[in-house]
Amino acid sequence: MQITTEEYQLFRPLLFSLGYRMLGSVAETEDLIQETFLKAYQLREDTIQNKKAYLCKMMTNLCLDLLKSARYKREHYVGPWNPEPLLLEKLHAFDPSEMIIQKEGLSIAYLRMMEHLTPDERAVLLLREALDLTYSEISAIIEKKEENCRKVFSRAKKKIALAEGESLNYEKNKSMITRFIQAFQTQNMDDLLDLLSENVTLYSDGGGKVHAAIHPIVSVPKVLALLYGVIKKAPDDFYFEVKSVNCQPAIIIYMNGKLQSILSFDIRKEKINEIYITMNPQKLPIV
Description:
- By secondary structure, the protein is an alpha+beta fold.
- The protein folds into two domains: 5-76 and 118-159, Up-down Bundle (Butyryl-CoA Dehydrogenase, subunit A, domain 3), CATH 1.20.140; 170-278, Nuclear Transport Factor 2, Chain: A (Roll).
- Helices cover 47% and strands 16% of the residues.
- Strands 2-1-6-5-4-3 form a six-stranded mixed β-sheet.
- A hairpin with a 2-residue loop joins β3 (239-245) and β4 (248-255).
- The longest helix has 25 residues, at 51-75.
- The protein is elongated and about 65 Å long.
- The two termini are 36 Å apart.
């Protein structure tokens, strides 16, 4: 199948949107995109009626295969698993069609909720909501009856219903995170208690590669104790900045001359409900 440069630039963001939401991994998504295009090049042109649909089907099936084979690996991951943070400015070859990957459903909180779904549930939900495909189109991609696809979608929506309350107002969330940083630096407990939910939970992902909490940390005192403990041990060249990660404001921390961790937040009802610290070097982008 022949794919022009224009078609490649058109379809690649689409495949990335699908793959990253399915896998929560930039590196794995990039690998499967290349595999999808390589397989497509080997197909006869006259056997393909709709290039977009066929590429989506190939990408979806590759993601499903990887998810099913990776289950054992994910179950034996050391400590909490956070999706790989996505810094859009570090991705290449995205023109205005990049907008497709900037829709809702990219936040770390949402992608963590996706882990509660089976591979098939994840695929149907994304094809329906992220790519706005019809049940007929979804049926052709995952090779299940339309009625089955509707049932899978309904089941998936119920499982991730908790994620629907997440605030995605970027500027409002950025203001809250700025307040959190100021309150944290000045140890203003009144402000911290106002910003953090009573049962705020921190998920620290080191993947066994670096020192990190292997269990979720729950409650305001315990979360703050851990964060202050990290800062107390920080080297002199420690610094941070607030940047857009997964289309939401996040804190990027640098130590020893390199990116050390990324803090992402789940904000609901004007409270920080969850904090995700990703420290696994294999998940951190090169900046």
